Amino acid sequence: MAERRPFLVSAYRGLARGLTPFFNLLFALRSRSGKELPQRKGERFGYAAPQRPEGQLAWIHAASVGETMSVLPLIDRLAAAGVKVLLTTVTVTAAELAEQRLPDGAIHQFVPYDAPGPVSRFLSHWSPDVVMVVESEIWPCLFDEMRQRETPFLLLNGRLSDKSQKSWARLPALSGYLFSCLDLVLAQSDADALRFQRLGCSRVVSPGNLKFDAPEPAAEAGSLAALTAEIGGRPVWLAALTHPGEDEIALTAFEQLRQEFKELLLVLVPRHPARADAVSDLVRDRGLSVTRRSLGEAISSSTDVYLGDTLGEMGLYYKLAPVTFLGGSFNDAGGHNPLEAALSGSALVTGPRVANARAVYKEFWIENAAVRVENAEDLARRLQLLLQDPDGARSQAERARHLVSAGRGALDKTLTHLAAYLPLNSAGSPPEAVREDGA
């Protein structure tokens, strides 16, 4: 396209180009904390070891675990349709999930740094036939580079909060340039679609939220039976996907609940398993006993906290506990996907800060399919009510499962729209066509 770059895009590109050598230091610092894999450093600079596969190649970029989980069913369908898929992520945990779950023929790479050199090298090597970024991954160098190419560029399962839309709108030249780079936005909801349109996206449809089409998270039957036997008749609740600061909140709630439920067990699953040592020390500092799954330790009658410090077993943890507090909702993480808990039959309690999936949570709260607590002090009280009323907890969980079932269908509609960009055979085609408005 001939449109001139806005000054801010040119400035960003120049700064990113100048800082590229310093990304080596950034990579080294992140590697020390387990946030990068040293042996795969080249990928972050756009250097790829694997060769590009022959045939149609779709590049999908999903930043972390939540986004990756949402597109795995789509990747399965694309692979079944004969399309090769390149998945990129930012986080190591998402890379580990991809290694476990990607279908044969799909390739994982770490996304290159958003600088002209790495992005250009990456695109030149892989030469994808279509590029899809997931949810809200807006990177100026990548978007600008795609503007210079003929490759179709899509936003998949797009979401945009009202706050973000207003922030972008304060820079109309920048936002108009970047968002008009997209050939198609597949938005999660009509509200998201409207916000994208306001920012200059020329073609927007709302097929729905792909997260609703995710399968029920797997729970290995032998592990579930073994842990259930170890727990016995003890009451149990789960603090899932916690961030720093939320572990303390969960432990405080646990100590309060133990005043009534003397044999109570807390299953504590940090969002990042790399924090397991720190969380384990935190538990012991409170005078509580902890057992760790990653070490193969069994739950005994003296175990206070069972630390789920493994990856890819959330289905197991949800099925162990009839009640779940879902983390990322008392800090700036923006909340985590509640649909896995809903599909697993665990009654959900969350904090109020869930901007990443606010529309989903709002529906859950309105329909009494989840409980919202405003502060840490209220958490123990609401958990107590659910533990005292198992039938009520099951009814709440069933309402959540029903809402998930009612929200399914985005995957087939998304594939219908992708058929305009990729030759999908019958294995990848949805059963029926949908109207252009995504209805």
How does this model look, in words?
By secondary structure, this protein is α/β, with parallel strands linked by helices. The protein folds into two domains: 7-208 and 409-418, Rossmann fold (3-Layer(aba) Sandwich), CATH 3.40.50; 221-406, 3-Layer(aba) Sandwich (Rossmann fold), CATH 3.40.50. Helix content is 44%, strand content 14%. It has 19 helices and 14 strands. The chain has helices spanning 7-19, 23-32, 41-44, 65-80, 92-101, 116-126, 140-147, 162-169, 172-179, 190-198, 221-231, 246-257, 276-285, 314-320, 339-344, 358-366, 376-388, 390-406, 410-418, and strands at 57-61, 84-89, 107-110, 130-134, 153-158, 184-187, 204-205, 236-242, 265-270, 290-292, 305-307, 323-326, 347-350, 371-372. Strands 3-2-1-4-5-6-7 form a seven-stranded parallel sheet, with helices on both faces. Strands 10-11-9-8-12-13-14 form a seven-stranded parallel sheet, with helices on both faces. Helix 4 (65-80) runs parallel beside helix 5 and helix 12 (246-257) packs across helix 17 (376-388). The radius of gyration is 23 Å and the shape is globular. The model is unreliable at 430-439 (pLDDT under 50).
List its traits.
14% strand; Rossmann fold; 44% helix; globular; 2 domains; 439 residues; seven-stranded parallel sheet
Beta-strand level of the residues, as a percent range? Answer: 5-15%
Q: Based on the coordinates given, report the CATH architecture of the largest domain.
A: 3-Layer(aba) Sandwich
Secondary structure: helix percent: 40-55%
Low-confidence residue ranges: 430-439
Count up the helices: 19
Number of domains: 2
The major beta sheet can be summarized as: 7 strands, parallel
Broad shape:
globular
**Average pLDDT:** 93
Enumerate the strands of the largest sheet in spatial order, edge to edge or round the barrel. Answer: 3-2-1-4-5-6-7
Q: Over all CA atoms, what is the radius of gyration? A: 23 Å
From the 3D structure, determine the CATH topology of the largest domain: Rossmann fold
CATH C-level class of the largest domain is Alpha Beta
Number of DSSP E strands: 14
Q: Considering the protein shown, what is the CATH homologous superfamily of the largest domain?
A: 3-Deoxy-D-manno-octulosonic-acid transferase, N-terminal domain
Structural class: alpha/beta
How far the N terminus sits from the C terminus, by CA atoms, comes to: 32 Å
